[in-house]
Specification:
The protein is an alpha/beta fold. Helix content is 38%, strand content 17%. The protein contains ten helices and eleven strands. It has helices at residues 36-50, 54-61, 66-71, 80-94, 104-113, 126-136, 158-166, 172-175, 185-193, 207-213, and strands spanning 17-21, 23-26, 33-34, 99-100, 118-121, 143-145, 178-182, 197-201, 217-219, 225-229, 238-242. The protein has a six-stranded parallel beta sheet with strand order 6-5-2-7-8-9, with helices on one face. A three-stranded antiparallel beta sheet has the order 1-11-10, with helices on one face. Helix 1 packs across helix 2 (54-61). The two termini are 17 Å apart.
Length: 248
């Protein structure tokens, strides 16, 4: 787990910290699963259909809604019916190309076991998210916020505000005790703008990008995020230990 970040000289050796949260909001791709290889194949297919160099699409597509990405190249395809259809195919066509982020399975199972308040807040569509959870056999949250649910995607804070609302944590005094776990700069910016604390995972972007986006902690993966005790009562607070974070 311990390592040196060659880009900054920082090390993942910060002392363990324990914090109390009312709920946890997870991004999906790069946070719970790593579907990079599958997504690359998907955008190569779409790029060929659009007559656009897929490498150009991939430069800005991560962490953004597909509908926003497609609008840059073909507005006729920038609609939720089309996006839901093509994204629903990804887990079925490229399921073997995805892997879970280390620590994700155990953390989600722990949250489910204690009946904690948690949700997935993602730029993907519902068919994409549920498809990956089914293919990977991971815990399903009671609440999802997906691309179809908001008019403005990340880095706008709308999705995380909606996630807190669905967990019953939208009140200002509860908002600061909500934890967002993200891997992309756009997602980190969205979580911070929504008033949450944010853990940045160094799974898809550079340490410097995560720092510049304002992540409160940066860790290598979800093995550094564990529960230290159960909730206090039904839907009570969650005690989270953050280990091996990047030294500040």
């Amino acid at each position: 787990m311990l390592g040196l970040d060659s880009g900054t000289g920082g090390t993942f050796t910060a002392p363990a910290e324990t914090h109390t949260f009312n709920g946890i909001l997870f991004d999906m791709d790069g946070t719970i699963v790593n579907s990079t290889d599958a997504i690359v194949k998907h955008w190569h297919k779409i790029g060929k259909e659009l007559g656009v160099d897929p490498s150009v699409i991939l430069e800005t597509s991560h962490g953004r809604r597909s509908i926003d990405t497609l609008a840059l190249y073909d507005e006729s395809k920038a609609n939720l019916n089309y996006v839901s259809y093509i994204e629903g195919l990804i887990p079925r066509e490229y399921g073997a190309d995805a892997v879970e982020i280390p620590g994700a399975r155990s953390l989600l199972a722990s949250l489910e076991h204690i009946n904690a308040l948690w949700a997935i807040v993602t730029s993907g569509t519902r068919p994409l998210v549920t498809g990956w959870l089914d293919v990977m056999k991971l815990s399903h949250p009671q609440h999802l916020v997906v691309a179809e649910d908001v008019s403005a995607g990340k880095p706008a804070p709308d999705c995380y505000r909606l996630g807190m609302d669905r967990l019953g944590l939208a009140a200002e005094e509860k908002r600061a005790a909500v934890l967002v776990i993200e891997d992309s700069p756009a997602g980190i910016l969205a979580g911070k703008a929504a008033g949450c604390r944010v853990i940045g995972l160094a799974t898809t972007h550079s340490i410097e990008q995560l720092r510049e986006s304002g992540a409160d902690w940066i860790v290598q993966d979800l093995r550094s995020v564990t529960l230290t005790s159960g909730c206090v009562g039904v839907h009570g607070t969650i005690q989270v230990e953050i280990r091996h974070a990047l030294e500040r």
